[in-house]
Amino acid sequence: MLEHPHVYTLGVRADLRHVLVPPASVGAELVRTDRGGDVTYHGPGQLTGYPILSRPGKNRRQTGMADTVAYVRSVEQVLIDALADVGLRGAGRLREYPGVWVDPDGPAPRKIAAIGVKLSRGRTMHGFALNVSTDLAMFGHIVPCGIDKPVTSLSAEGVDATMADVVAAVATRAAEAWSDGEAERQDVAWRHRPDDLAPFSRGEGAGAPVRLVSRLEAAGVTGGLAITERKPEWLRAHVSLGPDVRGSRLPQPVGVLGRRHRHVHVAGRALHSGLRLLPHRHPPSRPARSRGARPSGGGGRPHGAGPRCHHDGGA
User: Fold this and answer.
1) How far is CA 220 from the centre of its chain?
2) Which residues are catalytic?
């Protein structure tokens, strides 16, 4: 789950006439995708999720093609339940229109979440876009999903829920729907709000308290070394650059095992991190063989044949 920069995406059946302005004129990109559906918008304040699941087939043996409609319904239900958890009740489905809608049975249904998926060999791709505090004006430059109906968001509906609140609710409901209810979260980064920053980072100038220091104090870490003090002797790394070091010889050359198994001779250093360094060795000399002689046994290779290659069948 993430927030995209401003972008309009087109599904495989999208109609370009539903893009009403040049996307660059409103600071957005235009990207074609292989999902279902028409054109939609992604941007800040919108929670976009990409579930990656293995879905069973439609027949009794649960083999063959996966049931795309059933999967879309499960995504809708995850979002409907999550919206109720953060305070928006009454969201549901609008007949013949995928996605999640506010007041679907009323006179003015409003779309709050779009869904566009693709299933290939039982594996799900693409996903959903849930409007939390999205700039709804960006939807005015397209015909969202090719449907002439209004779009809304949690904030437009008067629900005061943060993005973190919505992520937690969706993660919980997704774990319940698609697993045994347990899930391991790996939060990478959050967009900062002004009140998330320390006074110094907000531009209040030198002398303002630094948040890291206050957090350390709150955790009971006090009495540290002031930034104006020098490190104690025992904490310094001593480096000797005397004549013994300057006059020493460079290490012996090593070979770098590259992607194509070629050896590149480098004097004492690796060209690429993450590659295995091997000591340079010359290939052992082979004993001379009389002309026309063939190796004993049945496992020999014909004269002039290339190397024998083995693989595990992977692409």
Assistant:
1) 35
2) 145
Q: Are 175 and 181 in contact (CB under 8 A)?
A: yes
CB 55 within 8 A of CB 66: yes
Instruction: Give per-residue pLDDT as tens, 208-255.
Output: 555 566 666 667 777 766 767 777 888 788 777 777 766 665 555 444
**120: β partners:** 123
How long is the chain? 315
Question: Per the structure block, which two tokens stand in for 206?
Answer: 């030198």
* φ/ψ of residue 36, rounded to 5: -80, 175
CA distance 233 to 212: 25
Name the maximum alpha-carbon separation found in the chain: 95
C-beta atoms surrounding 8 within 10 Å: 24
Q: Cβ-count burial of 9 within 10 angstroms (0-12 exposed, 13-18 middle, 19+ buried)? A: buried
pLDDT digits (tens, 9 = 90+) for 153-201: 999 999 999 999 999 999 999 999 998 877 888 887 666 666 666 666 6
Q: Residues of 15-51 as b/e, b for ≥16 C-beta within 10 angstroms? A: eeebbeeebeeeebeeeebebbbbbbbbbebbbbbeb
The DSSP line for 60-118 is: TTS-SSB-HHHHHHHHHHHHHHHHHHTT--SEEEETTEEEEEESTTSSS-EEEEEEEEE
Question: How much of the chain is in helix, strand and coil states, percent to nearest 5?
Answer: 20, 20, 60
72 phi, psi to nearest 5 deg: -60, -40
d(CA 154, CA 87): 9
Per CATH, is 7-180 categorized as 2.60.40.1190?
no
Domain residue extents for the chain: 7-180
Alpha carbon dihedral 24, 28, 34, 35, in 10-degree steps, equals -140
